[in-house]
Amino acid sequence: MRYTTFGRTGLRVSELVLGAMTFGEQGGVGAPIEECRRILDAYAEAGGNTVDTAINYRGGASEEILGELLADRRDRFVVATKYTVTRDPADPNGGGNHRKNLRLSLETSLRRLRTDHIDIYWVHIWDRHTPIEETMRALDDAVTAGKVLYIGVSDAPAWVVSRANTLAEWRGWTPFAGLQVPYSLIKRDAERELMPMAEAYGLTVTAWSPLGGGVLSGKYSAAPPAGKTRLNRDAISDRDLGVAQVVQEVADELGVTPAQVALAWTRQREGVLPIIGARTLDQLRDNLGSTAVTLPPQLVTRLETATAFDLGFPADFIAQTTPWVFGTGAL
User: Fold this and answer.
1) Could you give phi then psi for residue 201, rounded to 5 degrees?
2) What predicted TM-score, i.e. pTM, was given to this entire model?
3) 48: closest CA among 22, 79, 15, 26?
4) Residue 166: CB partners within 8 Å, gap ≥ 6?
5) CA distance 286 to 122
6) Active site residues
7) Cα 128 → chain centroid
8) Topology given in CATH for the domain delimited by 3-325
9) Which of these, 196, 215, 79, 95, lies nearest to 147 by C-alpha position?
10) Strands 176-182 and 204-208, how do they pair?
11) Per-residue pLDDT tens digits of the chain, which is 331 residues long
């Protein structure tokens, strides 16, 4: 396992992030604690050091299980969790990115995780009702208090993140060091605005659902899979199944699994760390194998052509008009 620094910080994080959304059996498909232990141990043995959870995953069980499993080795891991989603649907202040929910959510997560600090604290989803100034100042206060070391933002518009980090720069607050978005061969929307913004600000991108909800693992390409799955095969578009078919073909050529190809494509993107969320030890081991897969340029082109993705306006328009704007000698 290789390592990189998290954003413009000195924090070292592994090239694959372990997602703990599957930790716990509450609310459907998930893993019991003993399987979670085996998953975490195998991830650590492979050199992984970064685990991602959230206050609401499995109704809080994910944080509780992770806290128990890390009890004697907390300092060897980069522990990341998120807040925003409501702690109490009946409480109008139970969710959101305002100071009150941040404080109560942080204390809840610290207690469940059995730790006195969170290494990376993520704003889970943009809250359009809370001024970003309030959120950034409250996060900076948590950093100053030593309860949070670094901060990141997930599932937010590029202009919100840009404004937040500009405010942090002007006012001497802690800036976001990471961005979390859905990103895979099936869902490349983040390339339009979010990923260029992340590159400009030096943000590390952690990619959730890098297997496109499991579609790119190949399990929906043939007969319906046995047991519980996240998706109904009939709900998967022909376009997505077509992408999965190309991933399977590339995997067959390389002698690896479709999941390893899909993760390798995401991992080879500059500044992007895939989040792997396994329910079984076998799934985790398969995902870890992606670190040994290198995709040659011609196969990358083949995979990306299958997605039929374009950046759209304004990126395409700006590229098309470059000679018109700058002349024939334009770079």
Assistant:
1) -95, 0
2) 0.93
3) 15
4) none
5) 27
6) 57
7) 21
8) TIM Barrel (3.20.20)
9) 79
10) parallel
11) 999 999 999 999 999 999 999 999 987 788 999 999 999 999 999 999 999 999 999 999 999 999 999 999 999 999 999 999 999 999 999 999 999 999 999 999 999 999 999 999 999 999 999 999 999 999 999 999 999 999 999 999 999 999 999 999 999 999 999 999 999 999 999 999 999 999 999 999 999 999 999 999 988 876 555 555 555 666 789 999 999 999 999 999 999 999 999 999 999 999 999 999 999 999 999 999 999 999 999 999 999 999 988 999 999 998 889 888 988 765 6
d(CA 192, CA 309): 10
Question: CA–CA separation, 211 vs 266, rounded Å?
Answer: 9
3-state SS of the chain is CCEEECCCCCCEEECCEEECCCEECCCCCCECHHHHHHHHHHHHHCCCCEEECCCCHHHHHHHHHHHHHCCCCHHHCEEEEEECCCCCCCCCCCCCCCHHHHHHHHHHHHHHHCCCCEEEEEECCCCCCCCHHHHHHHHHHHHHCCCEEEEEEECCCHHHHHHHHHHHHHHCCCCEEEEEEECCCCCCHHHCCHHHHHHHHCCEEEEECCCCCCHHHCCCCCCCCCCCCCCCHHHCCHHHHHHHHHHHHHHHHHCCCHHHHHHHHHHCCCCEEEEECCCCHHHHHHHHHHHHCCCCHHHHHHHHHHHCCCCCCCHHHHHHCHHHHHCCCCC
CB 220 within 8 A of CB 248: no
